[in-house]
Fold this protein.
Amino acid sequence: MSALVFSVITIVALGYFARTIYRRFGMLLKGVAVNRFDHIAERLNAVLVYALGQKKFVQREPRPNTRLSEQQAGWMHFFIFWGFSILAIQVITMFVRGFFPDFYLPLFTPGLLGGPYLLLKDIMEVAVLCAIGVAFYRWGVTHPARLYGYKPSEERLAGHSHWEAYLIL
């Protein structure tokens, strides 16, 4: 019975997700076409450096047009991003195991990468909890100016509760 309830909830959630994506995709179709297949090597490098390496967040030097260096916040984002990315492997595995109890993702069986992965997962769980603690501290106690963006936004948003940020954390 619980597998049926879980399946129904999952199907409803996926349906809502699909509806949201459909609406957003419709907005994207109204945009101007751009060639995204030029400069493949540069684009792949940017994905590795900025998306996976999180360079924009962990760089030591201040951002252009500012004197601010938010390296602590950058590392906080880095560990939250990679922590949840690494934990996603376990989430996928446990989800599929609800239907197939002996399932393992390829290469993540106990005889291959399963053991080292479990150690890394445990370390990243602690790192994510620490990073989320830092995020709560920043949102709830220190309120750094960069938290809201640029000066007009800071003034406009400073009085808001930002319950969404707390909910996400």
Observations:
- The radius of gyration is 20 Å.
- The chain is about 70% helix and 0% strand.
